[in-house]
Here is the input.
Amino acid sequence: MILHPQGWKFFPHVSYIEMEGGRPNTVSANARRFPIVRDLRRSEMQFANAMNTKTRSTPTQSKAKEKTTRPKSWLGSQTLVRGLDVLEAVASGVNSLSELAATLKLNRSTAHRLAATLVERRYLTFAPRSGYGLGSKSLELGYQARVQLNIPRVAREHLEKLAAQTGDTVHLGVPDGTRALYLDKIPGGRRVEISSRVGELQPLRSTGLGKALLLDEDETRLREFYRCESSSGQRYTVSESMWMRRMRAYAKLGHTFDLEENEDRIRCVAAPVRDATGRIKAAISVSSAAQYMNDARMQALAKEVRRTAEQISRELGWEGPSVPARKINRKAI
Here is the structure.
């Protein structure tokens, strides 16, 4: 039976030699004399080709669609990423230009340009016979990272003990540019809400902890820090001359105070934490409401805060002079 415009017709002289998939594969020569048969065969072939084309194009289309949904990397970060790749490759033992280019799949000129910039900035070194190696800047950053990662772990037990002794909130922070970064906070037993949070950046000039981080700075640098925060529009009621006089006194004492300068009705006592080199790497503070922090109590707390900071410093390798131990008078608290 063959489809005809007037309905189904039977053509006895049309013979199908082979059947595949339910449709004729070869039509006899007599079929060429019948346009309807020829047209039917052409339609079948066109349909089959269309289906095959659609099937073959689906994976490509899917990949194209998937590709368009992927986020595009920022063009400006590509150089930075490649530079970090060079640094990591050298750290893993790759030391020649040819090895760098091959490992990172870069051409030699690009690999040389990136490596030369890192050498210039002291992140890498280069010697003609031995090739590339890590530079002094990389070693310095690695040491600083190790110290910063260790400080919260080393300090935690001491902070908890200090918070239990005083009943007040204890903080641990490190310098972060022109701000203080809070790494830890142990709430005290009093019903006093301190608004600080771990991971928060706080001012240097108005917080006790921030001032403790600045105790080794010279007068020029201290004025720069003070004026930097003034230029940023931060409100501060202590004049530069008064602040400088206080900082000179704090440097001699080895501790600092926050006299409600950063947060209304909140006072604190702070002291620096040093590493094996003797440099200030962190600071700790005890904070509470002003009603629990009169002048006499702040003086009583100062030596204990310094003593706790010293204990943390010694665990970080510091070997400076000791602060005489002084038991806190609970009645003064």
Observations:
- The first strand starts at residue 2 and ends at 4.
- Confidence is low (pLDDT under 50) at residues 1-37, 54-74, 325-333.
- The chain has three domains: 2-56, 78-134, 147-315.
- Residues 155 and 312 are 6 Å apart (CA to CA).
